[in-house]
Each structure stands twice: as structure tokens, then as C-alpha cells.
Amino acid sequence: MNDRRVSVKWASKIGFVLAAAGTAIGLGAIWKFPYVAGTNGGGAFFLVFALFTVLLGYPLLLGEFILGRKSQSDAIGTYRKLAPGTPWVITGWIGIVACFLVLSFYSVIGGWILLYIIKAVTGALSGLSQSEYGALFGSVIQDPVQTLVAQLVFIVMTILVVARGVQKGIERVSSIMMPLLFILFIALVGRALTLDHAIDGVRFLLVPDFSSLTPRAILFALGQAFFTLTLGVSVMVTYSSYLSKTQNLPKSALSIVIMNLAVTLLAGLAIFPAVFSFGLKPNEGPVLLFAVLPAVFDQLPFGMLFFIGFLLAFLFAALTSAFSMIEIIVASITKGDQKKRGKWAWTIGLLIFAVGVPSCLSYGVLNFPLIFQKTFFDLADYIVSNILLPLGALLISIFVPLKLSKEDLYDEMKSGSKVGRGFFLVWFYLLRFLVPIAIVLVFLNLLGVFSF
């Protein structure tokens, strides 16, 4: 078997943590969480989401780390190596296909962010009414030329980083973007908390009102806990395959979970106090960031400057996640041959752009239903979010305790760490029993087998 060459490694332990955290901290934490929380009870939703992230997301994340470092192989090679001659290799292929499709429509949103940064810098977002901001967003996403060019620019930015390699590309850029993301959000939160009635937004996010927490909202929180960490697509398997045996896997996984929760919290604290301060509703849906927040920031002194900071943080989160989606495919093709990396990064990236063109045009010239009354964008999102991601997460949660012995798992976990047998057993049984049951519940709900 042609396994990855040992030369492909992270340069530092913190570099891996920041890159993996960048993968987890994406649109799910900054774009999706605020409007999902806003429509599902605020503080109660956040509390349940945080508990699920720790009790269920963390065990699965650690399981992916163990798989990757033990195999020292790519997403497909990992399952071939650890379960040779079995159909389990389909788990790796699910990850490849999912990442390809995700980035095909994820890059569309990345393009919107770039367009809004340009509009904010040039003053095109200043002085409009709230209805005009909504109309502007509609006109932006319907413009085929603007959106396609912006989507291509976002893809090219991603390709340029991945083509430079793990250390010089992904690790180096993530190590700059992630600290900047936190700095920008802390500044935004500081400004938001100075607004009149900001405490109402803080209370909405941090004070649980369990009367507003429905069974459907609990399932949303459960799904968000898994998918906001980019679990189920073997991205974390690929990233951890570049690790040495000295990396403390339990500590690294915990750091990523904490960072992800922190950014989710900071995003909420930057958005909800501002929204409540101006008497707006927190349940505006996906357009909250593009049609509502500009109206809020425009009413503040130096508001557009803060909105640009928010968009930059949003862009950094989107890019660091996009790096991993191309990397998992490139790694599976090149098998660690760095001479092939540049060529395949460009090939895969441009193919993703081509496949994403219909999604980009789904709000304009291709805005008509295809299958199940869904546009290209909605269909790609549905296939990934409702089928491939939960299926991949379920298979990984079953694979780890089924195909690897307890002793092999324990040996890999304690390599580089000082975890005791008790911690290992709690993790093992959570992953073996509780995590698959939770994923099945989310899966069935997403597929509409049952609903509330």
C-alpha cells in the first residue's frame, strides 16, 4: 500500500490545534448558530448545545484523532489500513464526497462575505434603511457575475494556501487567522456590550428559558453539536494523521471543543445585544448576518468599521474550514507526494468551483425547484447536512470501538498524554453506545422519519 510519506507533519503542537480549530470554527459557529439559536429559545438552546458538544461531540472528535494518528494515512487509506478488505472504506469516500459538495456551496457564502467586505469598505452599506438592506442582499445574491467572480476568488484563496502544503500553507495561515478571529470577536463583543439594552441580548443568550425549548430544538442542538465540529467527514482523521506520537490527543480535542464553544458564545454576544438594542428580532433566519446586522452596525458610531471586523472574522472562519475540505481530497489523491500537491489542489479546487456554479446561481437565473422542490443550493445542502454528514458520523462512531481493540485504543490515546484507565473507559462507552444512538435520532429527524 502506498501510505503517506512521513515528511508530511505539523510543525508544532499548537499549529495543529489552531488548524483543527479553524476547521471546526466555520459557518456553523458564526452563521448558522445565531439564527438557529434565535429561533429555538436562545439560552436554553445554547446550554443544551454546549452539553451535547462536550458529552457527544468531544468523544467522536477524539475518536477521529485516534484513527488518523494510528493509521498515519489519508481519509480513504485509514479505513483500508485498519480494516483491510472490508466495505468500511466507504466511510472515507463519504467524507471525500461530502467535503467536495460542502465546499461547492460553502464557497458561495464565502463569496457573499467577500462582496460585503468590499461594499462595507467602499461605503455602499452606509445610510440605508432596514428594508433597503434586505433588498440589497437580495440583489447581491441574484447577480450572476458578481457572485460567480466572488465565489471563484474565495476558491482561489483556498487553493493557494492548500497548494503550499500542511506546514507552509494550512498551519501558517491558520496560526495567523485564528488568533485574529478571537481578537476581532472580543473587540466586537466589547462594543456590543456598551449599547443600550444590550443586557437583554445577553440575557436571551445566557439565561435559559426551558419553556421555549421544544423536542425539535433539542434535536437541532444535538445535530449542531456534531456538525459544528466538522465531524463525520474524516477531515479530523486526515489532520490528525500528520501528528507525531507526542501529541496529547485528549487535551488537543478538548482545546478545540473549548475554542469552538468560545467562538460560538462570542458570536452570540456580538450579535444578540446589538440586535436587541435596536429592537429587532433575533429569529430573522439565515439573512440575519447580511440583511439585519448591517442595519444595526450602521446606527453605531464607527459602526461600519466594526461590521468590517465582523466580516473579516467571518471570512477567516470560512477560509480555515475550506482549507480542510480541499486538503482531505488532495491528501487522498497524492498520498503524501508533495510534488503532486500543487497540481491536484488547483484541479480539485477548480472542479469544486465548476460544480458549485449552479448553487451560486440558485438565487438568480437558476432559482427554480429541481428535486423535492429544492434549488441546486438547497439540494446540495440537504444531501450533505441530512444524509452524508450524519451517516459518516454514525459509521465512524461504530468503526472505532468495533474494529480497534480496547488495548489498541488505550495505547494510542495515552501516547503523549497521561490519561487514566477511568477516563478512557468513560470515553469508550460514550462513543460505543451513547454517540451512535444520538446520531441515529438526529438522522431520523433530518430524514423526516419522525418529527415534532
How does the SSE layout of this entry go?
Blueprint lengths: L12 H12 L2 H13 L3 H29 L3 H8 L7 H33 L7 H13 L1 H20 L2 H27 L5 H9 L8 H13 L7 H6 L8 H29 L10 H11 L4 H32 L3 H23 L15 H28 L2 H9 L6 H26 L6
Helix pairs in contact: 1-8, 1-12, 1-14, 2-12, 3-9, 3-10, 3-12, 3-16, 3-18, 4-5, 5-7, 5-14, 5-15, 5-16, 6-13, 7-8, 7-14, 7-15, 8-12, 8-14, 9-12, 10-18, 13-14, 14-15, 15-16, 16-18
User: Which structural class do the helices and strands define?
Assistant: mainly alpha
The helicity comes to: over 70%
User: What multimeric state do the chains show?
Assistant: single chain
Query: What is the total tally of β strands?
Result: 0
Radius of gyration: 21 Å
Identify the overall geometry. globular
| Count of individual helical segments | 18
CATH classification, class level: Mainly Alpha
Distance between the termini: 48 Å
Task: Please give a structural write-up.
Keywords: Membrane, Symport, Transmembrane, Transmembrane helix, Transport. Belongs to the sodium:neurotransmitter symporter (SNF) (TC 2.A.22) family. This is Transporter. By secondary structure, the protein is an all-alpha fold. It has a single domain, classed as Amino acid/polyamine transporter I (Up-down Bundle). It has 18 helices and no strands. The protein has helices at 13-24, 27-39, 43-71, 75-82, 90-122, 130-142, 144-163, 166-192, 198-206, 215-227, 235-240, 249-277, 288-298, 303-334, 338-360, 376-403, 406-414, 421-446. α1 (13-24) packs across α12 (249-277), α1 crosses α14 (303-334) and α6 (130-142) crosses α13. The protein is globular. 54% of the residues are buried.
